[in-house]
UniProtKB/TrEMBL annotation:
Secreted recorded as keyword: no
Protein name: GntR family transcriptional regulator
All residue ranges annotated as the HTH gntR-type domain in the record: 23-90
SUPFAM superfamilies: GntR ligand-binding domain-like, Winged helix' DNA-binding domain
Alphabetical list of InterPro entries matching this protein: GntR_C, TF_FadR/GntR_C, Tscrpt_reg_HTH_GntR, WH-like_DNA-bd_sf, WH_DNA-bd_sf
Gene Ontology terms, MF aspect: DNA binding; DNA-binding transcription factor activity
Swiss-Prot/TrEMBL keywords: DNA-binding, Transcription, Transcription regulation
Organism: Caballeronia mineralivorans PML1(12)
UniProt xrefs under Pfam families: FCD, GntR
Gene3D superfamilies the record matches: GntR ligand-binding domain-like, Winged helix-like DNA-binding domain superfamily/Winged helix DNA-binding domain
Length: 229
């Protein structure tokens, strides 16, 4: 017996607009989960529970599952059979890989001729000020978040939206490493002045000195994180 085209059991094909809307909802969820990781709200080992997240984001399980698959593809979570999706715990190998990317993008940004966009410089200054303010309130997790944002703005100097998006994932992975610090104050405190000194060189147009300082900065940061693991 042939099935009628009007058979209600055959799901209708989605229109192009519906596909775009579904993708945009999925991307919104991915962005929000990634941002929560960057802010330190989802440390390694946190379970990303389907039931809780579908309710929190008011989406279908299929949409939520696609978002979680994307988070896993970005290296921010792992899917375990019978356990579900869990925020990743990174390794020393991950640290080395993250810093290869950081050196490539951040040093490239400082090697560009001319002055950066004033809006980017303003955002960098605001991140430095916010880190100082957070330190005065003993909010060391926020200090780390503002430092990550500062380095996001360095990559924004390149002027590529695709690289900006990619680098947000790198910063989220970096945040997962911060959680290994037994003393958050001791770990975060030195970077406040180092970010400020780097900003001052960038504003002064001291490209070579800024690149040298950033290179030293990244070496120190990498080794500090390796020592935590």
């Amino acid at each position: 017996m042939t099935r009628s085209v009007s058979d209600s059991r055959v799901p209708p094909k989605k229109t192009a607009t519906e596909h775009i809307e579904e993708e945009s909802v999925t991307e919104r969820i991915v962005t929000q989960i990634r941002d929560k990781i960057i802010c330190g709200d989802l440390p390694p080992g946190t379970a990303l529970t389907e039931a809780e997240l579908t309710k929190a984001y008011d989406v279908s399980r299929n949409t939520l599952r696609e978002a979680l698959r994307q988070i896993c593809r970005e290296g921010l979570a792992v899917h375990y059979r019978h356990r579900g999706v869990v925020v990743r715990t990174l390794t020393r190998t991950d640290v080395r890989d993250i810093f290869r990317v950081r050196r490539t993008l951040e040093l490239q940004a400082l090697a560009l001729p001319g002055m950066p966009d004033p809006a980017v410089l303003h955002a960098m200054a605001a991140a430095c000020d916010a880190a100082t303010q957070a330190a005065s309130q003993e909010d060391w997790r926020s200090v780390g978040t503002h430092s990550l944002r500062f380095h996001q703005h360095i990559v924004e100097m390149i002027g590529s939206a695709l690289l900006d998006q990619f680098f947000r994932t790198i910063l989220a992975q970096l945040r997962l490493l911060f959680s290994a610090a037994p003393d958050e104050r001791r770990f975060q405190l030195p970077w406040i002045e180092r970010d400020r000194a780097l900003y001052d060189l960038i504003v002064a147009g001291e490209h070579k000195r800024a690149s040298k300082k950033l290179s030293d900065y990244l070496d120190r940061s990498e080794e500090a994180l390796i020592d935590l693991l």
